[in-house]
Design goal:
Helices cover 32% and strands 31% of the residues. The chain contains 14 helices and 25 strands. A six-stranded mixed barrel has the order 5-6-11-7-10-9. Strand 21 and strand 22 form a beta hairpin. Helix 1 runs parallel beside helix 3. 45% of the residues are buried.
């Protein structure tokens, strides 16, 4: 085993067109296919060669969405609909934007219009299932997943596997509300400890425990170690793909049903949970608690007081606070930040011991694999395994509109799989070294993140 340092992060076919070549066979369908394959750069090249129509305008909106430029995407979708109100792809785009703001009614309205205009497109059914999930309408969510499975090509292995697992998961819970929260209006703060720049608290599962869980705002779901799942005598519901940092960026995970998770004086019933098998992660924690499970509350990770605070009421910001707009993707909140003058969207992640940049963002700062001295012997491990290529980026300043944090160096890793899973570019992960002095407040349904730095 390597003796190099170890950093733990808990998250998460193209065409060749030559300049001057023929574009006779380039169609919007070609662009759509490239976007399905997540080849955004080549899709943009093809799209720039086509005449302006409502469809090509909507597809340009999709490219801006993939880049994380959501305001530009919104403007292009609106423009496409002004040109032709029957542009299904624009309605899809508006639905995706509404999902990312947890606006369930608008998301459903827009995606049903897209389906009405073009009922045979599998992708529309997949996003319809997400829109209904925001409404917690699991009956309709299941119907749309079934339609996706029926319409989807057999070559789309990952999405098909996840859709089928989603159906099995919904069936396992029946008519019961998933992740139903029970507890007082003003719960007592939940104390946490710190180890290796991660935060941990004790929880009970199905009346057993306590178990040591990491509190992780960067987890797409709650997960248990395989050992704990066995100790609890849990039977798997289904198997799905779990995405995260490290290795290939994805691993197969068994899914289980937890009847009850208790943390502090709160109880969450009917919780779906995945598993991890990595022995290094298992040494640190019995599991990872994804904070999106508590999204009915406004959640404050109060680092100075070493406690998590839950409230149903939004408090007014004061002079020491800054509120950032956020976008919701797969139980994660992304916020816009500026890195040495370059804008990007970052995952807010209490499960990351350090802040990291994507290779794409590092490249904008002039650092890549060929940069002398950039590559470092630093082991980074996440749920996906070990990260092979780690770069060192010197002299980094990360800014919000009102604050800035300076770092002598920041590591850079490959975040392409995370970006692919979320459907939009992730420029980095804001971790412990950025967050440690703040009260970090997450308002999922308000899609806001607040940073408060108490006076010394």
């Amino acid at each position: 085993m390597s003796s190099s340092p170890l950093v733990v992060l808990m998250a998460l076919t193209s065409f060749l067109i030559l300049p001057g070549g023929s574009i006779q066979n380039v169609t919007p369908d070609s662009v759509s296919n490239l976007l399905l394959q997540d080849d955004v750069e080549q899709a943009e090249v093809l799209l720039d060669r086509q005449s302006k129509t409502s469809l090509t305008t909507a597809l340009k909106g999709e490219i801006e969405y993939r880049k994380g430029n959501f305001d530009k995407a919104q403007a292009l979708y609106d423009e496409a609909l002004r040109m032709d109100t029957g542009t299904a792809r624009a309605h899809l785009g508006l639905s995706k934007l509404a999902i990312a703001k947890l606006q369930g009614n608008q998301a459903v309205t827009e995606i049903l219009r897209a389906i009405e205009l073009d009922p045979k497109v599998p992708l529309y059914r997949l996003y319809a299932s997400e829109a209904y999930a925001v409404q917690k309408n699991y009956v309709e969510q299941r119907k749309q997943l079934e339609e996706y499975v029926r319409l989807s090509p057999a070559t789309d292995d990952d999405r098909l596997a996840e859709a089928k697992a989603g159906i099995e998961l919904i069936d396992a819970f029946g008519d019961e509300e998933i992740a139903r929260v029970e507890g007082p209006e003003s719960p007592a703060p939940v104390r946490f400890g710190r180890t290796l720049n991660l935060i941990f608290s004790n929880i009970m599962i199905n009346g057993m425990g306590p178990y040591n869980f990491a509190i992780d705002t960067g987890a797409t779901q709650t997960v248990l170690s395989q050992k704990l799942a066995a100790d609890l005598g849990l039977a798997p519901i289904t198997t799905t793909i779990m995405h995260g940092i490290g290795g290939s960026g994805k691993i197969e995970s068994k899914m289980y049903r937890l009847d009850e998770i208790a943390i502090g004086d709160m109880k969450v019933r009917n919780v779906p949970a995945g598993t991890f098998a990595d022995p290094l992660l298992s040494q640190l924690a019995d599991g990872i608690l994804g904070t999106a499970m508590l999204s009915d509350f406004i959640i404050t990770i109060n680092y100075p007081k070493n406690q998590m605070e839950l409230s149903r009421k939004k408090t007014a910001a004061d002079a020491s606070s800054e509120t950032l707009p956020a976008w919701y993707f797969s139980n994660l909140l992304l916020v816009p930040l500026e890195v040495n003058g370059n804008r990007g969207n970052f995952i807010v992640d209490t499960g990351a011991v350090t802040t990291v940049l994507s290779h794409s963002m590092a490249s904008k700062l002039g650092v890549n694999e060929r940069t002398p001295g950039a590559r470092v012997d630093l082991g980074i491990v996440g749920v996906g395994g070990f990260e092979a290529v780690v770069l060192q980026v010197p002299n980094v300043t990360i800014k919000t509109p009102n604050r800035s944090e300076q770092f002598a160096q920041v590591v850079s890793i490959d975040l392409k799989q995370i970006s692919k899973m979320l459907g939009t570019e992730v420029s980095g992960v804001v971790g412990y070294d950025f967050l440690q002095d703040y009260q970090l407040t997450l308002d999922y349904y308000g899609t806001e993140v607040r940073l408060t730095k108490p006076a010394n």
